[in-house]
Amino acid sequence: MFVSTGATILHADLDAFYASVEQRDDAALRGRPVIVGGGVVLACSYEAKRLGVRTAMGGRQALRLCPHARVVPPRMSAYSTASKAVFEVFRDTTPLVEALSIDEAFLDVGGLRKIAGAPADIAAKLRADVLARVGLPITVGVARTKFLAKVASGVAKPDGLLVVEPDGELAFLHPLPVERLWGVGKVTAAKLHDAGLSTVGEVAELAETALVSMLGRASGRHLHALAHNRDPRRVNTGRRRRSMGSQRALGRRERSPDELDQMLVSIVDRLCRRLRGAHRVCRTVVLRLRFADFSRATRSRTMVQATDETTAILITARTLLRDALPMIAERGITLIGLSLSNLDNDNAVQLALPFDEHGGPALDIALDRLRDRYGSKAVTRAVLLGHDPGISVPLLPD
User: Where are the residues of the annotated region Disordered (predicted)?
Assistant: First the structure.
C-alpha cells in the first residue's frame, strides 16, 4: 500500500451547507443573511453568522441579532440530494473517501500525483468541480494528518483552501486557540483556560502526565498527541459505520413529557426507516440530551437481540426518556437526539423468532413502502396527529 509522508490528506467541508443550498436555489437570498428553521436555528449563512447568529440558537434571539434575515423552512430532501451530488465529486476525485457527516469528508490523494498533480492542485480542482457541478462553495484543508487537515479547513473558512506543509505544521498549529484541538468543547476549554492555557503551543509545552492529571487519562493523552500533531489514522473507506443518529433542537421553551414523547416517536420512525433502508440492524439505543445550561447527557441501553423493528427500538427509547425526565424537569432541555449503534448487516445476525403477528417486520416493511411511494407523511402514528413532527437532522449521511 502506498503511504505518503507529505501533505496528502484533504478535509473537504461545505460552507454553511443548508443555508448555501437555499441561496443556490433562490437568487433572492444570495448575499443576504439567511436563517434555516424558525423556532430554532438549524443553520445560517455567513452573512447571518457575522452578526452573531449561531446554530441551535432560538429563533427570536437570532432575529434580534439579525432583524433583516430571511427565515426559510428546512428542505431535508434538497440537502440530501445536494450531499449525494457532492460525494459523487469526492469519489470522482479519489476512491479513498471517508464520510464524516452529510457535508464533510476526508480524502486521501497520496497516490494521485503522477496522474492528477500535487495535492494542492487536486484540492483546487475539487473546489471548482463542486461549484460547477453542484453550485455550492466548499472549503478544503490539506495536511499530512487528518487532524491537521480538519484544522486547516476550519481556519480557511469560508470558501477557502489552505495547505499545511510538513515542515510548517507546528508553526501553523501552535499559535491557534486551544478550541481548535479536536474534542475541546466548552467544559474542557474552561479547564485549560483556568490553568492559564490559551494556545495549542502552551498545551504542547505541558508534559502528558500534567494533562492527564488535569483532564483524565483519555482526554489528557488525546490532547497531548494532537498538540504535537500526532495522528496516525488513515482515511478509512471500506468499513460501514457503526451508528446512525438524528436530533432535534428545541429552543428554550419548556416542554411537557407528552411533547418530548411525540418528538421521540417521530425521530424513531425516521431512524428505523433509514435503518431498514440501509439493510442494517442495531443492538444499542442511545438517547442524547442537551440542557439549558449547555451541558449534555447520554443514556443508553443494549437490547438482547439485534433488530430493525420500530416497536422494539421505540420501547427502548421511551424507557430511556422516562428515566431521564427528572433530570430534564430540573435542568430544562434544548435538544433531544437518538443514535442507533452496534450496527450490523441485516443478514449477518440471527433474528429472534417468532415474529409478532400484530406488528414486527411485515408491518414495518409495508409502512416503509407506503411512505416511499406516497411520501413520509402518507402514514403516521396517532400520537403525532395534529402535531408538528419537527425536523430531525441526520447526524451522518446514509
Answer: 234-255
**Domain residue spans of the chain:** 1-165, 174-227, 243-394
With b for 16 or more beta-carbon neighbours within 10 A and e for fewer, the 348-387 pattern comes to: eeeeeeeeeeeebbebbeebbeebeeeeeeeebbeeeeee
- The set of cell numbers assigned to 156 is 480557511
Grid coordinates of 392: 430531525
Catalytic residue among 104, 165, 179, 202: 104
Q: Which helix (H) or strand (E) holds 35?
A: strand 34-36
Q: What CA–CA distances, in Å, run from 281 to 312, 321, 397? A: 12, 21, 17
Tens digit of each residue's pLDDT (9 = 90 or more) over 148-181:
999 999 999 999 999 999 999 999 999 999 999 9
Catalytic residue check, 104? yes
Superfamily of domain 243-394: DNA polymerase, Y-family, little finger domain (3.30.1490.100)
Say if residue 385's pLDDT is above 60.
no
Cell numbers for 52: 452573531
CA-to-CA separations, 340 to 98, 267, 306, in angstroms, rounded: 20, 11, 11
Query: Rounded to whole angstroms, how far apart are CA atoms 77 and 275?
Result: 17
What pLDDT, in 10s, does the model give residues 191-229? 999 999 999 999 999 999 999 999 999 889 999 999 999
SS3 249: strand
The DSSP output letter for 279 is T
What is the identity of the amino acid at 173?
L
Pairwise CA distance, residues 259 & 253, whole Å: 11
We find that the CATH architecture of domain 174-227 is: Orthogonal Bundle (1.10)
Q: Determine if residue 92 is labeled as part of a ligand binding site.
A: no
Residue 7 CA to residue 108 CA, distance in Å, equals 10
3-state secondary structure at position 280:
strand
Entry pTM: 0.71
Per the annotation, does 13 bind a ligand?
A: yes
* Dihedral pair phi/psi, residue 53, rounded to 5°: -75, 140
pLDDT score of 94? 94
* Rounded CA Rg of the chain: 22
Q: Is the pLDDT score of 355 beyond 50? A: no
Q: Do the domains 243-394 and 1-165 match in fold?
A: no
Overall fold of domain 1-165: Alpha-Beta Plaits (3.30.70)
